Amino acid sequence: MLVLSNDEVGQLLTMQDCINSLEKMYLDYGNDKALLTQRMDNLSPNSTPDAYYAFKHMGGTWPAEGIQALRLNSDVITHPVMEGKVRRVKQPLANGRWVGLVMLFSTETGQLLAMFPDGVMQHIRVGAANGIALKHLAREDATTLALIGSGWQAETQLMAALAVRDFKEVRVYSPRKESRENFVANVKPMYTSANIQVAETAEECVADADVIMSSTSAMVPVIQPEWVKPGMHISCIKTYEM
Asked: How far apart are CA 232 and CA 121, in angstroms?
């Protein structure tokens, strides 16, 4: 059995590798050649103020690769309000860590093949999923990207977008000025082919953009209807939850 750490997953899995694998899996799933296990969430109270416990499991079977995957998450969740929007935030209360695990099984023998934390893997996977959508659905002449959010997930959203399209301009906005400025300062040296800039307002960020990617923990809509223009591609890492 292969046991990997988050660091090892990050060294082994590239964004392009993830995009290539997910594209094949999505094609198989669309042709009824792969199965997804329904996500289940068990929520219960706990002793942490303004928080609750959440246990989640999901998975899928990919016969073409002989793999069954199972993901488990054991989380303490809070819902802080930022800029008037309710957010979903996992608290790292397990000695400063989050608790998420992925296990891979062989569909040929039933053997447990691999086990690793879900942190870096799901980080890359979420970015890759939206990157695939952008690759196939956005206009071929799209050159301006508006990225709303500057947290952990925003990094791989940008990585995936630049892996599939040649954006010339990228604007980044998030409510906290320090956060968006630090994000841009960190990613600029990594992607010199694009002009990556901080936007001071959300409206400035999305003005005349060809693509809007929302990467926030907000549980309410972030992209406003008046921002949407004909031919614009839009993606989001989270669905609207009532």
From this structure: 29
**And the tokens for 98?**
């989050």
Q: Do the bridges between strand 112-117 and strand 144-148 make them parallel or antiparallel, or are there none, so unpaired?
A: unpaired
Residue 142 has pLDDT above 60, yes or no: yes
**Phi/psi of residue 118, nearest 5 degrees:** -90, -5
Per the DSSP assignment, residues forming a β-bridge with 236 are 214
pTM exceeds 0.85: yes
Question: Nearest 10 degrees: CA dihedral of 157, 29, 141, 170?
Answer: 0
Contacts of 180 (CB under 8 A, 6+ apart): 150, 172, 173, 174, 198, 199
pLDDT in tens, 68-113: 999 999 999 999 998 788 888 999 999 999 999 999 999 999 999 9
Residues 118, 102: Cα–Cα separation, whole Å = 6
- Per the listing, tokens 């549980």 go with 219
CB distance 84 to 99 below 8 Å: no
CA dihedral angle for residue 25, residue 159, residue 204, residue 85, rounded to 10 degrees: 60
